[in-house]
């Protein structure tokens, strides 16, 4: 359900804007999206895991708030990130 250190560092390298960027909105959304996708796969097997479902809802809400902030600050970067992460259809 969780992501490994290697996966997380690969996501950071892929979405960072500068060499020392590890906590920007883009990086945080990419990490949250990966965690959300892993949890969705978990729920296909464990349908009655309601405790983890609550965690999924919290992750989705946190990503939604970050995306809302990014949309207010830079609409072009928001559109690029949405397309990269394949969040909206």
Structure description:
The two termini are 24 Å apart. The mean pLDDT is 94. This protein is 75% helix and 0% strand. Helix 2 runs antiparallel to helix 3 (50-73). It has 4 helices and no strands. It has 89 residues and is mainly α. The chain is globular. The longest helix has 24 residues, at 50-73. The protein has helices at 5-15, 25-45, 50-73, 75-85.
Provide a quick synopsis of the model.
75% of the residues lie in helices and 0% in strands. The protein has 4 helices and no strands.
What string, H for helix and E for strand, traces the elements in order?
A: HHHH
How many extended strands? 0
User: How would you sum up the major sheet?
Assistant: none
Helix count equals 4
Average pLDDT works out at 94
Shape: globular
Radius of gyration from the CA trace? 14 Å
Structural class: mainly alpha
Distance between the termini: 24 Å
**Poorly predicted regions:** none
Annotation keywords:
89 residues
Topology:
Layout: H1 5-15, H2 25-45, H3 50-73, H4 75-85
Helix pairs in contact: 1-2, 2-3, 3-4
């Amino acid at each position: 359900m969780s992501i490994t250190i290697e996966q997380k560092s690969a996501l950071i390298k892929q979405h960072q804007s500068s060499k020392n960027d590890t906590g920007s909105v883009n990086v945080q959304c990419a990490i949250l999206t990966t965690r959300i996708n892993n949890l969705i796969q978990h729920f296909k097997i464990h349908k009655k895991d309601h405790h983890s479902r609550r965690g999924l809802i919290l992750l989705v809400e946190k990503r939604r708030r970050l995306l809302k902030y990014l949309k207010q600050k830079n609409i072009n970067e928001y559109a690029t990130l949405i397309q990269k992460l394949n969040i909206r259809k």
